[in-house]
Amino acid sequence: MSVRLASVSAALIVVFGLAAGTADAQLFSFGRGGCGGQGNRPCGPGGLANLLIPQGFLGADFRPACRRHDACYLNHTTGRFECDRQFRADLHASCRNSLLPGLCHLTAELYYREVRRYGSQYYSPLAPIMSAPAMMLGGQ
Hints:
By secondary structure, this protein is mainly alpha-helical. The chain contains five helices and two strands; from the N terminus they run αββαααα.
């Protein structure tokens, strides 16, 4: 099982590292804010990279945590650290449903650390906040 965890760890580091340093916007198309938020595979930096990122761990579903984190980064309702802290708590909470909760918690911690390492480029506290009514009215 430690081989699988090492493989997941290596894949996350490579994917987040490549996404953080790539100049090829076609390969890693992040969209607004650089968050994943793509349908059924929201975990990851976005684009094709999300295909490589596991969306959970043996019964634990990380997707709700990833969606909530993406929304926090995009809406700027709190600071980046608070978004990341809640992401960490949500990931660990989802590990209650894992067949191997101990390894799930290690994986959750890895996801959190990678977000802390590479997430700053996707969070901008100076970005404009658009309310839901303004969006529905076509506001900017």
